[in-house]
Amino acid sequence: MNVPRFPSAALGLDPGTTPDRTHGADARAVDPRALIDLPTREVRRRTVLQWSLLRSRALRVGVPLAIIVLWQLASSLQLVAPETLPSPTVIIGALKELIADGELQSAIGVSLVRAATGLAIGGGIGLLAGLFAGLWRVGEEIVDAPLQMLRTIPFIALIPLFITWFGIGEGAKVAVILAATIFPMYLNTYAGVRGVDPKLLEAANVFGLSSRQIALRIILPTALPSILVGVRYSSAVALLALVVAEQINAQNGIGYILVNANQNQRADIIIAGILVYAALGIVTDLIMRALEHLALPWRPRFELA
Amino acid sequence: MNSPDNAYARSVRDERETALELDGVSRVFAGRAVLKDVSLNVRRGQFVSMLGASGAGKTTLLRILAGLDQADSGRVRVAGARSVVFQEPRLVPAKRVWENVVIGHDRLSAAKPSALAALDEVGLATHADGWPKTLSGGEAQRVALARALVREPKLLLLDEPFAALDALTRIRMYELVARLWRAHTPAVVLVTHDIDEAILLSDRIVVLSQGEISADVVVDFPRPRSRSDEASIALRTRLLAELGVTQDSPRKAA
């Protein structure tokens, strides 16, 4: 009979220890009356755990390093054309050049102000809408349906519209970032407020808290982790939107460096610019995590590790 | 007994001596009567345990007394100053332990001394500035007790507050609750399905079965009581019978 078998092997379980379903169906099944030896922690740690920890660390550091070394080798041996993929050393040279000119510093400044402006406005709108929908049922009825509908529009599709409305200057760029950051902020805030344990709210009722006290003492502090996740997501999305927005009629910022290098066929500067975007992303994420760490002292620490 | 002109004076006196008064209370959930015409009086300072199997209506009754649910019919009167300890501690994780104790006060910082005093009473003064998630289950439940007592309730409602605790912690909690009750003298309604717990702590045990009060027993032998007291054993047997369990029935069933 072709009955689907209990996937004990896939789960790494010994078939002999699983109930009747596999009994007699598996040749490896042990006598259910026999005793089996379970390894002690001491043996497991020495044989399995230590080795897997060592391997995981070595691979995590080693593989990226190996890729860079291979890349450098391929460039040095002229296996790839330098105009297609410049070597890591050339890219570092391009970065040094940009920094020496002061070009990179001013571009990062311009780009960060752009991203921060869009994030502040978009994130602010998302936060307020999330609180409004989360705290008041009527708020949810007003805000949620329209925002959920707008959410289905990819923000990149809005670029032509924003150029038509705001021209090709700073307005359209900030508007793209703004539009992109509203939803992650809204969704996480709303979910955070609504996710507060109803049992806590019931207790608050018994202990005579006013609606205002319930919002300030219970709902907002408890929803803060989720709100901060919203801030972190929005920041990441703001950087993504920044990259796209800066391609619109670039006059300054990191986007300008990229477009300019593109026109001059300078792959080394383009890759350097991409690396700067990546570094901004990492730094933003680190800052946000540090912020969460400081703002949420009551959370068990392992969640932030 | 009393002459009619004493009726008013008597009602005022009753008012001062009564912690809760239920008169013909009924509650129906989706066509099923959970409470049927329940009448009960508890005088101030009395420790009453409400005993019953799961689904007997005891938690519904407690929720009505706490104001978290409303009776469909009948009259419910309770002391204005009342407080609840739930089965779970229900502490706000983002607030420090002392802030949780005085969470209902208008200004938290001004109430800190009373929070510390209440925490001291439950033996947790050193944890005042800690976070709820760092507490053990028993400690968290003691904070919940402190939070209930800081309001100086005239009626303290306990909804199976020991059910989630381990057996050793539970014994310590019995002593703590008994001590706090003697010190603050609120009327207590303890909802439980643990007969021994009810016998150890109460002045009076009310058995609820299928939404009706099936027994109302005064426990008048002296405290501190032990499970192995003869009176305890006799009362346990009687209560088990009220709940439909005879002592040898498990063996018959097996």
TrEMBL record, chain A:
<dbReference type="Pfam" id="PF00528">
    <property type="entry name" value="BPD_transp_1"/>
</dbReference>
<keyword id="KW-1133">Transmembrane helix</keyword>
<feature type="region of interest" description="Disordered">
    <location>
        <begin position="1"/>
        <end position="26"/>
    </location>
</feature>
<dbReference type="InterPro" id="IPR000515">
    <property type="entry name" value="MetI-like"/>
</dbReference>
<keyword id="KW-1003">Cell membrane</keyword>
<protein>
    <submittedName>
        <fullName>ABC transporter permease</fullName>
    </submittedName>
</protein>
<feature type="transmembrane region" description="Helical">
    <location>
        <begin position="174"/>
        <end position="193"/>
    </location>
</feature>
<keyword id="KW-0813">Transport</keyword>
<feature type="transmembrane region" description="Helical">
    <location>
        <begin position="214"/>
        <end position="233"/>
    </location>
</feature>
<feature type="transmembrane region" description="Helical">
    <location>
        <begin position="269"/>
        <end position="291"/>
    </location>
</feature>
<dbReference type="InterPro" id="IPR035906">
    <property type="entry name" value="MetI-like_sf"/>
</dbReference>
<keyword id="KW-0812">Transmembrane</keyword>
<feature type="transmembrane region" description="Helical">
    <location>
        <begin position="119"/>
        <end position="138"/>
    </location>
</feature>
<keyword id="KW-0472">Membrane</keyword>
<feature type="domain" description="ABC transmembrane type-1">
    <location>
        <begin position="108"/>
        <end position="288"/>
    </location>
</feature>
<feature type="transmembrane region" description="Helical">
    <location>
        <begin position="150"/>
        <end position="168"/>
    </location>
</feature>
<comment type="similarity">
    <text>Belongs to the binding-protein-dependent transport system permease family.</text>
</comment>
TrEMBL record, chain B:
<feature type="domain" description="ABC transporter">
    <location>
        <begin position="20"/>
        <end position="235"/>
    </location>
</feature>
<keyword id="KW-1003">Cell membrane</keyword>
<keyword id="KW-0813">Transport</keyword>
<dbReference type="InterPro" id="IPR027417">
    <property type="entry name" value="P-loop_NTPase"/>
</dbReference>
<dbReference type="InterPro" id="IPR003593">
    <property type="entry name" value="AAA+_ATPase"/>
</dbReference>
<keyword id="KW-0547">Nucleotide-binding</keyword>
<keyword id="KW-0067">ATP-binding</keyword>
<comment type="similarity">
    <text>Belongs to the ABC transporter superfamily.</text>
</comment>
<dbReference type="InterPro" id="IPR050166">
    <property type="entry name" value="ABC_transporter_ATP-bind"/>
</dbReference>
<dbReference type="Pfam" id="PF00005">
    <property type="entry name" value="ABC_tran"/>
</dbReference>
<dbReference type="InterPro" id="IPR003439">
    <property type="entry name" value="ABC_transporter-like_ATP-bd"/>
</dbReference>
<keyword id="KW-0997">Cell inner membrane</keyword>
<protein>
    <submittedName>
        <fullName>ABC transporter ATP-binding protein</fullName>
    </submittedName>
</protein>
<dbReference type="GO" id="GO:0005524">
    <property type="term" value="F:ATP binding"/>
</dbReference>
<keyword id="KW-0472">Membrane</keyword>
<dbReference type="InterPro" id="IPR017871">
    <property type="entry name" value="ABC_transporter-like_CS"/>
</dbReference>
<keyword id="KW-1278">Translocase</keyword>
